[in-house]
Specification:
alpha+beta, Ubiquitin-like (UB roll), DNA polymerase, domain 1, 2 domains, two-stranded antiparallel ribbon, about 30% helix, globular, disordered C terminus, (2Fe-2S)-binding protein
Amino acid sequence: MPARGSAITERGRTVEERGPGPVEVTLKVNGSEHTMEIEPRVSLLDALRERLYMTGAKKGCDQGTCGACTVWLDGQRVLACLTLAMTCEGREITTIEGLADKGELHDMQQAFIAEDAFQCGYCTPGQIMSAVALLEEGHAGDDGEIKEWMSGNICRCAAYPHIRAAIRAVRDHRADHDADRKPPRGPAGGPPHAPPRL
């Protein structure tokens, strides 16, 4: 254990040891920076909910088993209850509150409403954050793959068929949109309506 105040290595860079008392931490959440004083053991979930009053990420199990606290860290989904807040400095944190764009719901949020993909709604923020990431990761090929890659998010109301329907709806809509943007191709990859080769 290094002496207090000595330099240690964290993710390939040298940083000063901090703690065990409260430390100043600056977190970038949904594009805005927030500076606070917290103990080193404070989880990202508690910092978000109790210090920044962003209560979208839910405290379900507080053990990393239910997925209700799912947020993104540099675009990757993480369980906020198992992530120490002070390790997130200098990284981009995105919560469900940052998903909508200028008041317009994200297409996954709209799909969850359209497909009735929630009942009590407690797990819904984590489900949506995981669902959006799942599409970005390319893990929505079929229902089996969706089930596997969403398995870390538990819905105690068992709305799983509707959740999968919402994910499929967004996946298919995006695929159709991408297809519409590509120029049509003719036979053998030639231009559309290419004259037959003689």
